[in-house]
């Protein structure tokens, strides 16, 4: 599949949501701060974390089915329906063709969250390995990875499937991120293969929170600079509304 001509991103201007007084996890403990600073791998969610958009919602809107698909996304991210059910339901509403996806990538460059490029560079400078783990699609995440100089082998995401004429066939159900608990599976695979001692997951949704488990992520940082999902934020080890909060701790 051809890539868009330009990977120039639009750095979105996002006003971080104000932390509510009901959250007591916006300041990290010494233990959490040390774990973050000593991490040898950091896994990022993509939609509403690395990027300010939900990719499948944007593609659906581009194809004329935005509202209905966005409603399903909200349910999936809140954890109220199994992820694989929501993914199949959303795609069935608009069935994007290969040419539509290519046209979308040409006309809608990724909008990355403010500070994410600096944060990734800081992590790399500390020899921390960076991964993108997403319930979105590789076709749309490859340009994001290119902007951030993250190698393709460090991407765990879903794959849209097309026929010989470019018609939509579905998605690859063998990808771990196509199912509920898939991000946790991906993180566990990464940890097992590379033998990381300290691994951190950063994201905004229920599927990201699931990655914090024995054998998976040691630490879950909830990034709520785009979407504040209270059920997820309240259970996170550290709640941040701006990537500067993380950058500053790496100075």
Automatic annotation (TrEMBL):
InterPro entries xref list: HAD-like_SerB (IPR050582), HAD-like_sf (IPR036412), HAD_sf (IPR023214), PSP (IPR004469)
Cofactor(s) needed: Mg(2+)
GO terms, molecular function: L-phosphoserine phosphatase activity; magnesium ion binding
Keywords: Amino-acid biosynthesis, Hydrolase, Magnesium, Metal-binding, Serine biosynthesis
Catalytic activity: O-phospho-L-serine + H2O = L-serine + phosphate
Pathway membership: Amino-acid biosynthesis; L-serine biosynthesis; L-serine from 3-phospho-D-glycerate: step 3/3
Any one annotated GO CC term: cytoplasm
Origin superkingdom: Eukaryota
Keyword Amino-acid biosynthesis: yes
UniProt xrefs under CDD domains: HAD_PSP_eu (cd04309)
Isomerase listed as a keyword: no
Active-site residue numbers: 45, 47
Catalytic activity, EC: 3.1.3.3
Gene Ontology BP annotations: L-serine biosynthetic process
Family recorded in the similarity comment: Belongs to the HAD-like hydrolase superfamily. SerB family.
Protein's name in the database: phosphoserine phosphatase
């Amino acid at each position: 599949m051809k890539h868009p001509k330009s990977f120039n991103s639009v750095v979105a201007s996002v006003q971080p949501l104000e932390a509510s007084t009901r959250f007591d996890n916006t300041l990290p403990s010494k233990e959490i701060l040390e774990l973050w600073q000593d991490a040898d791998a950091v896994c990022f969610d993509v939609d509403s974390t690395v990027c300010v958009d939900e990719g499948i919602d944007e593609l659906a809107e581009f194809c004329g089915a935005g509202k209905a698909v966005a409603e399903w996304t909200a349910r999936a991210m809140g954890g109220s329906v199994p992820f694989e059910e929501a993914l199949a339901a959303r795609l069935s509403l608009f069935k994007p063709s290969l040419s539509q996806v290519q046209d979308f990538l040409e006309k809608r460059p990724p909008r990355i969250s403010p500070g994410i490029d600096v944060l990734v560079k800081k992590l790399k400078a500390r020899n921390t390995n960076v991964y993108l783990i997403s319930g979105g699609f590789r076709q749309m995440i490859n340009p994001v990875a290119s902007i951030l100089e993250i190698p393709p082998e460090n991407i765990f995401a879903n794959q849209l499937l097309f026929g010989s004429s470019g018609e939509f066939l579905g998605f690859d159900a063998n990808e771990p991120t196509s199912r509920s608990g898939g991000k946790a599976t991906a993180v566990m695979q990464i940890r097992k293969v590379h033998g990381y001692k300290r691994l951190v997951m950063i994201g905004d949704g229920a599927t990201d929170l699931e990655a914090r488990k024995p054998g998976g992520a040691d630490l879950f940082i909830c990034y709520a600079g785009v979407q504040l999902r209270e059920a997820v934020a309240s259970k996170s080890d550290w709640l941040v509304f701006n990537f500067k909060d993380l950058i500053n701790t790496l100075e």
